[in-house]
From TrEMBL:
One Pfam family recorded for the sequence: HAD
Chain segments carrying region Disordered: 25-52
Protein name (record): Uncharacterized protein
Top-level taxonomic group: Eukaryota
Length: 303
């Protein structure tokens, strides 16, 4: 996917990636504390007709990045692609800008970066990419699940409520995460942005569905209508202000380790704010030095 640098020479760039993007959210709990906080008391949303009551069963939608896991899967995928020499510095710095904006709760316009990434995967076999992403998730992200997430999922499952991934990422990381973190795995029940696949099973480089920002609500509403689900009976867990429209449309919006803008908005609206903690492994992050970056453009990771 990548290309050679100018005059065949790829300059070395040393980037402290974590210092830029992996900025901790306010006052995160340690793993043991977060797990205890979730398991010691029933979900407060049950007082409003949520987990464990006798009303019509709804669905629990879970955002992926910074919600189920304590990091951004797309950023780690980009590190993976850089390490393999498949991401050029031009796209790297463009993506860095959008990741920084997203971390601050300002994600508007990131669709453009997503469209550029989709184009760069044109001609790739979808099955091949899915297998690669699957291996990547198991190796790099299986240990990044927030400790407070699993108990909440278990409560929903015990109440007969479906747990559905609802992410702006591409279908490949979304499906991998659904399998890894015990959400529903049928591709039709994984809500995400979608790269278009042609009749031969190859990625076309076009976007078939955008689940970012307001688009996440529209894609989720489409899924809910097809599955006879009333969004007012549903929970939605997310960290990002970019998901606020969907939060407004469900009966039980929950802000999980939210960005500053969503935290303020949730307090204003009286929404629940949960701290699910961070994985202990985050305390031991490596630093990355890449000699493979080049300035002629290359591919970026999914979503």
């Amino acid at each position: 996917m990548g290309e050679k640098g100018l005059a065949g020479v790829a300059p070395t760039i040393v980037v402290n990636i974590d210092a830029v993007v992996e900025t901790p959210k306010p006052e995160p709990q340690r793993a043991a504390e977060a797990t205890a906080a979730v398991t010691a008391a029933p979900a407060t949303s049950s007082d409003r007709g949520g987990v464990g009551d006798g009303q019509k069963k709804g669905v629990a939608f879970f955002d992926l990045d910074h919600t189920i896991i304590d990091t951004n899967s797309s950023w780690h995928w980009m590190q993976h692609e850089i390490h393999n020499g498949r991401v050029g510095a031009g796209f790297f710095f463009t993506a860095l800008y959008w990741f920084a904006r997203y971390a601050a709760g300002f994600g508007a316009g990131a669709e453009r970066a997503g469209a550029e990434a989709a184009e760069l995967y044109a001609g790739t076999a979808e099955e091949e990419l899915q297998h690669e992403v699957e291996r990547f998730f198991h190796k790099e992200l299986a240990h990044r699940m927030r400790p407070g997430c699993a108990p909440v999922m278990q409560k929903h499952a015990a109440a007969g409520e479906r747990c559905i991934i609802c992410t702006s990422s591409w279908q490949h990381p979304a499906r991998s995460a659904a399998r890894l973190f015990d959400c529903e795995t049928d591709p039709a029940d994984v809500i995400s942005s979608v790269m278009e696949v042609d009749a031969a099973g190859m990625l076309s480089g076009k976007i078939a569905k955008v689940a970012f920002g307001d688009g996440k609500y529209h894609v989720t509403k489409e899924w809910a209508d097809a599955n006879d689900v009333d969004l007012m009976q549903c929970h939605f867990y997310t960290d990002s202000m970019s998901d606020v429209l969907l939060m407004e449309k469900v009966g039980f919006p929950i802000a999980v380790n939210p960005d500053a803008r969503l935290r303020a908005h949730a307090k204003e609206r009286g929404w629940e704010i949960h701290d699910w903690g961070i994985a202990e492994s985050q305390m031991k992050k490596p630093r990355y030095s890449y000699g493979c970056l080049n300035f002629s453009g290359a591919a970026a990771g999914p979503g």
